[in-house]
Amino acid sequence: MEITFKLYATLSQYLPAGSVNHSINIKISDSDTAFSLLDKFNVPRESAHLVLLNGVYVNPEDRDKPHFIKDGDTLAIWPPVAGG
Amino acid sequence: MAWTRKVLRVNLTEGTCKEEPLNMQWAKQYLGQRGLGTKYLTEEIDPKCDALGPDNKMIMITGPLTGTAASTGGRYSVVTKSPLTGTVACSNSGGFIGNEIKCAGWDMLIFEGKSPKPVYLYLENDKAQLLPADELWGKSVWETDELIHKKHQDPLIRVACVGRSAEEGCLYAAIVNDLHRAAGRSGVGTVMASKNLKAVAVRGTKGVGNIKDPTAFMKATSDGKKVLAENAVTGEGLPALGTQVLMNVINEVGAMPTRNMKEVQFEGASKISGEAMKEPRPTDGKPNLTTNAGCFACTIACGRISTIDQGHFTIENKPQYWGNSGGLEYEAAWALGSDCGVSDLDALTYVNFLCNEDGMDPISFGATVAAAMELFEEGVITTEHTGGVELKFGSAEALAWAAEVVAKGEGFGRELGLGSKRLCEKYGRPELSMTVKGQEFPAYDPRGIQGMGLTYATSNRGACHLRSYTVSSEILGIPEKTDPLETEGKPELVKAFQDATAAVDSAGLCVFTTFAWTLEDIAPQVNAACEGEWTADSMMEMGERIWNMERDFNIAAGITGDMDTLPKRLLKDVAKTGPAQGKVCNLDDMLPKYYEARGWTADGVPTDETRVRLGLA
Predict the structure, then answer these.
(1) Which end of chain B is more exposed for a tag (fewer CB within 10 A), N or C?
(2) Residue B410 near residue B424, CB atoms below 8 Å
(3) Pick from A54, A55, A81: CB nearest B245
(4) pLDDT at B172
(5) Taking CB atoms and an 8 Å limit, are A10 and B240 in contact across chains?
(6) For the packed helices B519-529 and B490-504, what is the interaxial angle rounded to 10 degrees?
(7) Considering the entire predicted model, what is its pTM?
(8) Hey, are the CB atoms on A81 and B270 less than 8 Å from each other?
(9) Are B474 and B483 in contact (CB under 8 A)?
(10) Do A83 and B270 touch (CB under 8 A)?
């Protein structure tokens, strides 16, 4: 299945060339998790503070849960950020 | 220093400057800045007075930690009655002039009456003079700053002043200090101009003193700085990307108000984000962001300094904008960008420059232009009104034009200077104004972040994010994550944020420290500097006292509980996309519980019991 994978702020550096707007479409397996995808892109897991699946916050206990991500989903990840 | 115990009272009608002692009883109850300034205001003016009349007063006030070694201890506030909302107004600014006022030996400056002619206050330590400002009137903030420096031949003078927009009656005019920091919201600059007061120029050389326990203070402030440095947000995230890092976050969660809040996600968000500001432009190979910058004593340095491509249409024949200047913060980028549907980063930066140059609040300006764009789309406003300008969503040219005419109060710019509420009422479409109590919304759609709906509805200065930033909890997980689409627990969350923020706003510190600090980090710094026993609990109680005092002022001014509401668009029209798709803001689920948590009646009035408990009766 294919998803949209986004890395923002200081994590953008881990995206491969060819990424557009901090985003890349990638093929994943059913067993892939947010953490396993971070591992594939060499992003330190502890850097992933804000993890959003289709804009909805993913709790830390769900970030290594298989079958959590579905075909067509958008997974977006940030380090600790704030503003206002 | 902590309190200098000195107040400068400037009577503009009489042309006098008099020293008086600080009311220490009030200082121990309200600390400084927002709390203490509001206490003075509520004691000295009739809440029903005309905000732009001589009976209103304008107070510039520091906090006890302003000018000290505490990180971010450079803040000051402007407290007055707002001409935009009719509520109490308190606008907080950084930069360097807060420290300068304190180093000149003053806790606060109270301006009363109205000068018969334009003047500016020149303050050099104990010497306070009202000087003629005829040659400054009609000048921009940047020109005024330069002229004052030339006249006094002192590069270290710090200047806070109003631009042409305030002189022309723009109701959301700011007071700009140090060229591009601003007491921005609620029209405090309009009040200053209404008094014929063009500028406050300050030079202070007295330094820091009067700390209760210097050894404990140095330890407490050092401990605090360590916490800020080691926190990933305040130590890395904010310096690198500034507040603009939120652009993609808020868009992703579906809470990005777009095109006058008709939509909750903006297709151009990534082009105007903090990340985009760092990327080289295809046109000149240089990034929009030049560097970050910090205010006095700040160890975070979230500020943005930007440079526009010299070939960009906004500045190609205007070399005065070719240098670097204050760049986009998230709130400005949102209001000028997604709310107007404009995704041209350099155009937004140019308009932001103009907001600094002539002192307009970019949030209210952008949101008002967005409302005008919707009126234009609806055919209510036409090119006959605009002098031929196609005021369409997405038009960078129209946005730049709007900023130019509001800055100078020219033509249709005078109508845009009324703010969204009065503009929409004038054209018979009040429902298109995205405001609460007359103040324009900031950058979070409450359909996607429910707590912010309650925040906006109950804010004592009209729609505002800085009165209770529950985004921190609901989206960013600071201090703990809550569900942005749920209303359960939000009344208590909003109350806690409101009270804690009022305390921070009274200390002389920046609220951004609270991404890393709690009151447990701040109270030891205040306690070591100030007389009295200051703990996290006592500061929280003080925050609640301030909130209720502000509420009482507003009620006396005629701003009552029935105005604790939101535009129908947010209560009736569902979000079309994103996680909040199909949802409205469920304010009715939260407001009664909020009143109950506050100890207020069902009509939103503090009970006698609450007033007694807080020492307000």
Answers:
(1) C
(2) no
(3) A81
(4) 98
(5) yes
(6) 30
(7) 0.98
(8) no
(9) yes
(10) no
Of A56, A74, A83, nearest to B244 by CB-CB distance is A83
User: pLDDT digits over B288-337, tens only?
Assistant: 999 999 999 999 999 999 999 999 999 999 999 999 999 999 999 999 99
Q: What is the phi/psi pair of residue A78, to 5°? A: -130, 155
Q: Does domain A2-78 have CATH number 3.10.20.30?
A: yes
H/E stretch holding B542 reads helix B536-556
Domains, chain B: 6-203 (3.60.9.10), 232-439 (1.10.569.10), 446-515+535-613 (1.10.599.10)
CA distance B401 to B314: 9
In this prediction, residue B595 carries a pLDDT of 98
Spacing of C-alpha B60 from chain mean position: 14
CB contact under 8 A, A55 and B579: yes
DSSP summary character for residue B22: -
DSSP structure class, residue B578: S
Classify the phi-psi angles of B96: left when phi > 0, otherwise alpha if psi is within -120 to 50, otherwise beta. alpha
Low-confidence spans in chain B with pLDDT less than 50: 1
- The domains of chain A are located at 2-78
Angle CA B328–B333–B334, to nearest 5:
155
DSSP string, B428-494: T-GGG--EETTEE--S--TTTSHHHHHHHHH-BTBS-STT--THHHHTT-SSS---TT--TTHHHHH
Q: What's A67's DSSP letter? A: T
- pLDDT band with cut points at 50, 70 and 90 for residue A84: confident
The C-alpha R_g of chain A, in whole angstroms, comes to 12
Confirm or reject contact between B232 and chain A (CB < 8 A). Answer: yes
Pairing of strands B108-112, B181-183: unpaired
Q: Which residue of A has its CA nearest to B246?
A: A83
Whole-angstrom distance, CA of residue B381 vs CA of residue B418 = 15
Determine the distance in angstroms separating the CA of B58 from the nearest CA of chain A, rounded to an integer.
Answer: 26
Using a CB-CB cut-off of 8 Å, the residues of chain B touching A8 are 245, 248-249, 275
Q: Identify any residues that bridge with B128 across adjacent strands, giving them in sequence order.
A: B123
pLDDT for the residue B208: 77
Residue A21: its pLDDT value, please?
A: 85
- Closest residue in chain A to residue B449, using alpha carbons only: A56
Q: Give the Cα separation of B281 and B271 in Å (integer).
A: 11
Q: Which residues share a beta bridge with B460?
A: B462
Of A56, A76, A83, the CB nearest to B245: A83
pLDDT mean across residues, chain A: 94
Contact B253 A55 (CB under 8 A): yes
Longest dimension (CA), chain A: 37
What pLDDT sits at residue B499? 98
CA–CA distance, B467 with A76 (Å, rounded to integer): 29
